[in-house]
Structures are given as structure tokens and as C-alpha cells.
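Something for you to look into today, if you have time. What I am after is a single protein written out in full by you. I want to see for myself how the chain folds. Could you add the entry underneath, on a fresh line?
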Amino acid sequence: MVKKNGMKEIQWNRRLGILGGGQLGKMLALAGAPMHLDILAMDKDSSFPAAPYVKKFVQGDFNDYDDVLDFGRQVDVLTIEIEHVNTAALVRLREEGVVVHPDPDKLAIIQDKGLQKQFYLNNGLPAVPFRLYDNSSAIREAVAEGRQELPFVQKTRTAGYDGRGVAIIREETDLDHLLMGPSVVEPLMPIEKEISVIVARNEAGEVRVFPPVEMVFHPTANLVEFLLSPARIPDRIAREAEVLGIAAIEAFDLCGLLAVELFMDAAGRLLINEVAPRPHNSGHQTIEGNVTSQFQQHLRAVLNMPLGDPSVVRPSAMINLLGAPGHQGAVRYEGMEEVLSQSGAYVHLYGKTETRPYRKMGHLTVTAPTVEEVLQRAQSLEHTLQIVAETEVTT
């Protein structure tokens, strides 16, 4: 049925499947609960974070063709919480009439950083310069012959996630740490800020953009440790970032969310680093900080509902709660009482029972009336809550 305004009548009885049962799946399920959405998730183990919060949890491997096919046939709409899924099965499901978001053909491009970089080039989107290499030997040879300058960043073309699959090579002695397999090599650029914009788009073509956030990465784990919303950038650059995010999601022709990570140089020039077609770590603070959370927005987008208002309600900061270095085993939380006693502090634990170094175990959101105040509060609480092992093992 089509309404007078051209929008399709919302079909509330559609079943939504999520490939992946981690923390993003959990937060998607929680965001769907107020509308009592029928949500299923699939992942390898029922102990994963999303399992208690979805209507049905299916054990299976989202990289296995048959598992994805069997799961997808149980739902009307299928989406993801992680890019690294079996796209061949998604194509088959699309042919069978299942609505799949993001589109599997475009997802296959995003899964391969080499194809992703070439896509930006082909579509006139400003991106970090890059070179493609088949293996580490080819990189060594290029350095030796002067065709590849140091320093540079090496990224594996596939399977990289949460900082894995990234190596920073500053000098020749670092070449011993090159990653194996096909990879993308980019110059190690001087960067003023790293920012992210999250864009939503539904089947009706409606597009909404969350205001840019400013990211700070962990120096060892290479993943987002701390972010600030809204980003401390001029209004002109914020508008340019939003326009670039819209251009990216429309070039990919995606429905759902697209998180667009951007580098900003000293001159204020913006370059696309990477994208993710799903809820993203740089949008967790939207639960408390924005009118509509990124998780609610993703559900609205893939189910072709009207999109929500992404405006900032109050300045916020998000701190990743990572497993402490040197700790592995049953999890224990230190400093929880002190954090919970603070006004404007919100703890989100993912329910993972085992900790290990730099594993994402949760996040902390801090809100305050001003950006300056939220930054001050976040910095004071950043190391208060520690994720350690119940029994510390010494070697």
C-alpha cells in the first residue's frame, strides 16, 4: 500500500535478521524493542552479546554459504553488524526475494579495501592516495627500488577489523613487520584530525546525516579509544563532511547506515579513509547524545521507515572500554562505583565474559552542557573503569 505522500505503508510484521551477534547486534535489538520489532540474529555461539536480546538467536557461521542461506530464508529483511560475511549467499537470497541491506554487490566492494579505494577514484570521491601490492615481497622490492617511499601505512585488503590488518612502517627496520597477503599501501600523512560522519538512507531515498564527531585512536590497538561529539571543527568543514558523506552513500546506492571515516589535514582538506555499511563505533554516543541513535536509525533505514532526527541533544564523549594489557580470562570490572556515581556518565557493558588485551568490552558515554565540559569529564574518567581478568596470570 502507498500513502498519499508517496511513502509505502510501513509493514510492521516483517522479520529482520542480523548477521552477527556481537555488541552491535545487541544494541540494534535494544533499539528495536520500543517498537517491538521481530528481530533475529545469527552467530557462532549463544553466549554472544546479542543472544538474550533478540526474539530468536540462531547458531551459525556468517561466513558459511549454507548457514547464511538457511538463516536468510527465515526473515523478510536481512542486514549485518559486521562486513565480513558470505556475500555469495546474500546474492542468492536477494534473487529469492529477501530484502538485503546493504546490497551484497556493494558490500563486496567495501570488504576489499583495494576495490573500495578504486571505487572512490572512479566516482570522484576525495580519498587518501594508495598503491596496491600482491604481497609483502612486492612492497620490499618497491622500497628497495625507490618506488615506494617511507613512511607508509599497510592495510590488508580483506579481513581487517578493529585495528587488525594494519601496520605502520616508519623505517626500513619496520619492514620485518609487514603483513602477509594482498594489501593497500598509503602514505603516512600528517593529519590534523580524524573525523567521522554517519549517514542514513532508506529505500524511499530519504537521507539524514549525523553531525561529525572527532576521533582519537589508541596508539597500540589502532582502534577508536575516545571520541567527541560534536567535532571541534569549523562549521564550513562540518558541512563539507556531511556533503561528502551523502555523496558516498549515494555513490554506493546503499540503504541503512554508512559510517564515513575522514582525515582532515592542516589546510582543512577532507579525504575519505574508509567506510563501514553498518552501525559504527564512532556512533555509540548517539544513544544518549542525539535525538535518534544510530541503531534506531539503521533499523528505520533498512525497514524503509521515515528516518529520525539525528541532531545533537547535548555534547557527548564516548570512551571504549578495552581489556587491559596483560589480562586474559574471566572478566572483572574495577572502578565501576566511581563511574556510576558521576552525573552524566552512562556505562554500556557488552556482556562478554572473557577479557583479553584491547578487546572491546563496553563503552562509556559522558554528557555535559558544553563541549569543553564534556571533554574535561571524559578525560577525568577515561582510565577510571578498568577491564581486568578475575585472576591475573603472571608469566
